[in-house]
Amino acid sequence: MARKIVVGACPHDCPDTCSILTTVEDGKAIAVRGNPDHPFTRGRLCVKVNNYQDSVYSDQRLLYPMRRTGPKGSGQFVRISWDEAMTEIAHRFKSIIATDGPEALLPYSYLGTQGIINGLNVGDPLFNKLGASVSERTFCDSGSCTAYMMTIGHTPGVDPEAFVHSKYIILWACNTLSTNSHHWPFIEQAKKNGAKLVVIDPVRTRTARLADWHIPIRPGTDCALALAMIHIIIKEDLVDRDYVAAHTIGFDELAERVEQYTPEFAAAETGIPVEDIYQLTREYATTAPAVVRIGVAVERHAGGGQTVRSIACLPALIGAWKHVGGGLLQLPIWAFPVNWGGLMRPDLQPATMRVINTWQLGPALLGDLPAGPPIRGLFIYNANPMAMVSQQEKLEQGLAREDLFTVVSEHFITDTARYADILLPATTQLEQADIMFSWGHLYLSYNNPAIEPLGEAVPNTELFRRLAKALDIDDPFFYRSDDEMIEQSMDWSNPVLEGITLPDLKEKGYLRLNMPAAGEWAPHRDGQFPTPTGKCEFKSTLAENGNFVVPLFRQGYGGDQAGEPVDPLPHYIKPNESISTAPALAQKYPLSLISPKSHAFLNSNYGNLPAQLAQAGEEQAVLLHPDDASARGIEAGTPIRVFNDRGTFEAFATLSADVMPGVVVAPAGYWQRSNRRGPTVHALTPHVFADLGRAPTFSDVLVEVARG
Question: What is the pTM of this model?
Fold first, then answer.
């Protein structure tokens, strides 16, 4: 019996990017486990992937190209060859370009895999060369990134491993144990060392239960709290005057701006008692090192961008950046010298292109968006929009159009894949090579394929090589091998990669970037922020150019930005849907809905698999406060309807005082066919964007709940 252990890396859109050891016997993967030698993974995998081999060998896997035989949405397909699939796709795409122009084609992708060569940007060069419409992908952290860059620039921030040195830790909109669980041991060690852990979240999550202090907050009001903290820090002279003078700009203007944001104002907005706001601020400002970890949920409301701007001002005000373990952690991804230009090839783009945001796919397919020809060809990979976007009725109608030619590359026949004209089988992470950055630690990872591809599945890299050939593209760039793509994916001359070689990376599976040790590094002790001024910008200089989406999220395209005016100073934007901003709507729909990441799913990944469904619950559950449930005659386990003017989904009630009164919680990730009937939670989400980076407003939603 031939047995080997292959080192790889988790493919998912998760900050942990775990190092995985796969046990292979006679060519078959029989088990996966976390790499015990990896300083972050530490031998453990989460419930999402600790049985990853079951996903690979699932009897639901799509293993061969398929052509639709029944009505769109019926899931009726017949097997065809790769040659037949490529010939048909090329013929249809060429025909669409000839009759309607290249902008009638739309690629649609996200982070179903986060690998650098197989992930978000793998198809960008081809669609840029064709001149197709640009897919603007702002589902997650786009607003946060825009705000972050406006304030402190693209800095990796605090080393996640340096949290062991922190003495005051705020996890803000971050359920670490469910969405960043391998960071928890560092936080736990800090607690053992005497640190105080504070969690700010509308829900008493798994993480909040283990905190020293859980502060419940009304959804969408975080910015009011952050601005009130700035107000107190300045009023009570808790400011590190020397640091502010040397390494920030705009302090006087900021001080004037926050005069209006009193603790009393914030208490009325957030539901947090005034005395708690004072206590939080004083403890944070006087306990060093103090650190804030923000989660992706912090941007998901009307004022999400300004929330991140306000929070990002806090560490500089108190001089937290001077200390190891002090400052702010958003995305360490900025430390990795990825050759984004080489991956996306914006140089292949025509001078002007149409931009379509992925959050608005339904209206785009129905022709509701201005400018440009109708979408006639749709190419979806690494994504399942039917489960994850708003306006699901429109999306279903759009995908059902007989004049729309849709190609989907997938592991499974998802809710979206059921509408495909051509289905293409994609490899899993055990069947492909890739190189991985992380947005939760500072280790570059390599994924060695553990097994041969099953059936006729191919990596995304090979898919686009075949598509380029079928479309008669002769540029050698499009036919590079995976090894060549990996070699060209990074700027190996960057000092952070000094001493790191691909052979070493392949052999070990991971290597830490060449950066100071976690116990030594205070990244902005001496300022040196990657902003236009080199300082933390309380008053942003980038704001003068208006609202923008980081080009990484839009195939490298810098044109046709939103451009709305942006106030250069942080300010509070109320939720779009609340009692104060929409009283008539709130009378009809009095409950705030939030849809956090699931403990067992990764977005919609694993929403069809038995082990993860057993952990999450076979059917969608919704968490209500007992008082809200009692007022509606709802008991635990009662079938319920959650609804507003945009849609309805069905679920079962779970009752707990862990959620604030007036708030209901429906974890995202369930497929439509996993629900009792019809749409997912995102059918109720507004299609409007937040203030910065065109971020969706997942957590700015009023609903009502009734017995089913």
Answer: 0.97
